[in-house]
Amino acid sequence: MVHARLQMTRDAVMGAFPADPRPALAEAKAALSQAHQARADLEDGRGAHQHTQAGQAARELAQATAAQRDAKFRATWAQGWRGRRQVAREIASSAQAEAKARERWEAHAGPQAARLEAEIARCQSAVEDLETRHERRAAAIATSNHRFYDLCQTIRGFRDGLEAHRDRMDGVQRPGTGRQAVLRSRLSRGLEHDHRYDIQPDRSAGRGLGR
Fold first, then answer.
1. Percent of the chain, pLDDT > 70?
2. Residue 174 has pLDDT above 80, yes or no
3. pLDDT (tens digit, 9 = 90+) per residue, 58-73?
4. Average pLDDT for residues 189-205, to the nearest whole number?
5. Full DSSP string of 131-194
6. What is the pTM of this model?
7. Spatial CA neighbour of 148 closest among 1, 15, 9, 18
8. Residue 93 to residues 99, 106, 107: CA-CA distances in angstroms?
């Protein structure tokens, strides 16, 4: 009866905890990953953006940026006045091409990039919030489990002590005393057999018979 009531109380306590946020956390992480992938595809002109104006602008911007980087690299190895002048013209030309490509990308992909950045921020915030909720819930459940275990131990000890007191008042020896009870208790709990509590047969019985 006591155990049933304790279990009912525990079930009520567990039911009072907030819902497990792990399913929602998994969904939020998946949404965050998808948003990051969509942003990367838009940046590189891949995936769903491959055949769009935004994708074309992204690829042109990548090419212009690479040309600008190569021109600056060649400038470090330019020889003589003519070589340095030629590289300077290439740097200026590639910088102008990069600026125009970036303007086109901003025009075609800028609004969508801003929406994806907002989506990433929203998903990241949701993930962090759900992770915090999960950690707090797990800590609360662990504390509840510990307290429930301590309560069960206290009640069990009180019950055993009360029964022993009753038996002493009635002058009744409780079952479970003596070497046989110790052995039976250890075996019922699956503990290692202790031969100190073995019940040895009386080898003196029957001596002299048959002589």
1. 73
2. no
3. 999 999 999 888 888 8
4. 45
5. HHHHHHHHHHHHHHHHHHHHHHHHHHHHHHHHHHHHHHHHT-PPSS-HHHHHHHHHHHTTPPP-
6. 0.58
7. 9
8. 10, 20, 21
pLDDT value of position 88: 86
| The pair of three-digit structure tokens given for residue 45, joined into one six-digit string | 């002109």
Crossing angle of helices 80-170 and 53-75, in 10° steps, is 120
Distance, in Å, from the CA atom of 196 to the CA atom of 186, rounded to the nearest integer, reads 12
Query: CA 135 → CA 18, 27, 123, 128, 200, distances in Å?
Result: 12, 17, 18, 11, 57
- In angstroms, the CA 97 to CA 61 distance is 8
Q: Could you tell me what percentage of the chain is helix, strand and coil, using 3-state DSSP and rounding each to the nearest 5?
A: 80, 0, 20
- Residue ranges per structural domain of the chain: 20-170
- Tell me what the mean pLDDT of segment 102-119 comes to: 92
Where would I find the beta strands (DSSP E) of 18-156?
Answer: none
Rounded distance between C-alpha atoms, residue 25 and residue 28, angstroms: 5
- Which two three-digit tokens encode residue 209? 């018979």
Structure tokens at 58: 């992204």
